[in-house]
Amino acid sequence: MTRSDRQNSYSRYKRQAESPNPPEDDLPKEINTENTKSDDAIEPLSKRMKMSNINMKTGGAYIPPARLRMMQAQIKDKGSEAYQRIAWEALKKSIVGMTNKINSSNVAEIVPELFKENLIRGRGILTRAIMQAQAASPTFTRVYAALVAIINTKFPEIGELMLKRLIIQYRRGFRRNDKTSCMSAARFLAHLLNQEVAHEVLILEIVTHLFANPTDDSVEIAIATLKECGKKLTELTPKGMRAITQRVRDVLHEGQVDVRVRYMIEVYFAIQKDGFKDFEVIPQELDLVEEDDKCTHLINLDDAVDNQEMLNIFKFDPEYEDNEEKYKAVVKEILGDESDEEGSDEESGSGDEEEEDEESKTTENQQIIDMTETNIVVLRRKIYLIIQSSLDFEECAHKLLKLELKPGQILEMCYMILDCCSQQRTYEKFFGLLAQRFCQMNKVYVDPFTVIFENSYKTIHRLETNKLRNVAKFFAHLLYTDAISWMVLASIKLNEEDTTSSSRIFIKILFQELCEYMGLTKLNERVKDITLQEAFEGLFPKDHPHNTRFAINFFTSIGLGGLTDELREHLKNLPKTPIIPTAPEDEAASSSSSSSSSSSSSSSSSTSSSSSESEESEREQRKKKLQKRKKK
């Protein structure tokens, strides 16, 4: 075929395409008249080519956004399939474009724009775009997790769909030995736990699943996951975290993995010991969700979940316009009427700046006083979590020192240590060693524990027997190690009037524990120490014989009678009270007036004489017993 022939055929083809009714000569010879359409139903070829491109699964060749909007504007029927398909392509391009350009600095600006798109219709596109972007850029996993957390507050079904697809991706990658896919899904789920979109049970199941049959790849994925969310797991489930830590330690000791993986495990233990300080739960710039708005989804690893793949492709909606109006109403509730807000902001921009300057000046001089004690509650919670998550007292002391407590908060920390100790079923030496370390490290901590001892003894009757025992053993450890001064015992008065059954039990356990630590001989030497006589003055009273006997009987009954030798000698050497003779009866009868006036004095003398006679009889009985023992 020559060049002129090709041009003629091309021009004829062009005329046929532009003409609605082709010439009869160009029609086929044999036509089935039953299947032919009317001339009005025959569309131009160019229009049919455009529609065929739109109706293809992928939308055909690339269409620029401006051309796509122009094609969408040409279609007047918004309920038609062609219009919905073009709108679907525009929705997909918009969601993917905004997802790809999001970062930690612009996430707050992009989210409102993203909400303007119909995320309910395009939730399949959104989740797939986020997962693809996260797999391509793992360093931005925190940003994508924050984006999912924000969307989850308004549309929880999108957050749930994201979790289901990530679980399926993890399981599929694990079965196929696809380390990259498995690692990507596990890290994403870890950050969703930090944002409280995923439940901690899911992460514990994943880590347990990876350590069930440890290999180099599975251990590496598990360690990477624990690094990302270990701090959050420690806060939420300390017991679960301890079990995971023990399993990691077992894998390290068994030596079934490569040397490189062992080094990774050792690095993880170092990170855990430092409290995951380099792995924040949520960075400050990504902490965009209020605590009350968070919605956590509990989905187990073995649950039968549907990833809803049909949401990724176009589907004709017969109620398209109604659904679009409903979504616009929802978005208006979420974002508000931005047009009105922008107009008002432009008009009153200068006025707002002046008001802000005035408010800033006034707020600088104001001091907010928290009467709800929220800060104290948060502090006690932090201290409790640190104590529960520490393996030994040295690690716990190191973590507590990192809190950099203010002087007013030190007393709260000391109270918290004692409260945690008293809550245990049996006394744990961990708490005594922890308090000892603080007292010996800095004298600032000695005074709070001294104050706590005095307050605890005053309110000891409020404690149950088990708590009372733990508190007594706690302070016995501090006294034995000289962490606090023995002068705190000066607040104890051992007599029948100033003690209760609870306080006597406290003193009993305290001294029995001291005797167990020091031995009776050294404890007796400490009691007889001249410099500490003021401290033991109330425990070993010499002010009244009755109190002296009470103290002797008390220490003898608890098996520490050896501490009362000086009291016994003191009681023996007490001067005998003279017996006052009573007046004869006949003299008293003759002087009736004098007897009435001296009745009170005679009654007092009779009581004193009776008491002195009883004391004299007791001394004689003791002498007789001693003589019998000597004879034997």
What do you see in this structure?
By secondary structure, this protein is mostly helical. Helix content is 66%, strand content 0%. It is built from 29 helices and no strands. The chain has helices at residues 3-18, 45-55, 65-74, 81-100, 107-116, 123-136, 141-154, 156-175, 179-194, 200-212, 216-236, 238-254, 259-273, 320-335, 338-347, 349-365, 374-389, 393-401, 407-423, 429-441, 446-458, 465-480, 501-518, 520-527, 545-557, 565-572, 585-590, 592-597, 599-631. Helix 7 (141-154) crosses helix 9 (179-194). It is elongated, with a radius of gyration of 44 Å. It starts with a helix and ends with a helix. Residues 17-43, 45-59, 338-351 and 582-612 have low confidence and may be disordered.
Key attributes of the depicted protein:
single chain, about 0% strand, about 65% helix, about 625 residues, 29 helices, mainly alpha, mRNA splicing
The separation of the N and C termini measures: 149 Å
How many helical elements?
29
Determine the strand fraction and express it as a percent band: under 5%
Principal-axes shape call: elongated
* Largest sheet properties: none
What's the short version?
The protein is mainly alpha-helical and 632 residues long. It is 66% helix and 0% strand. The chain has 29 helices and no strands.
Write the layout of secondary structure elements.
Blueprint lengths: L2 H16 L26 H11 L9 H10 L6 H20 L6 H10 L6 H14 L4 H14 L1 H20 L3 H16 L5 H13 L3 H21 L1 H17 L4 H15 L46 H16 L2 H10 L1 H17 L8 H16 L3 H9 L5 H17 L5 H13 L4 H13 L6 H16 L20 H18 L1 H8 L17 H13 L7 H8 L12 H6 L1 H6 L1 H33 L1
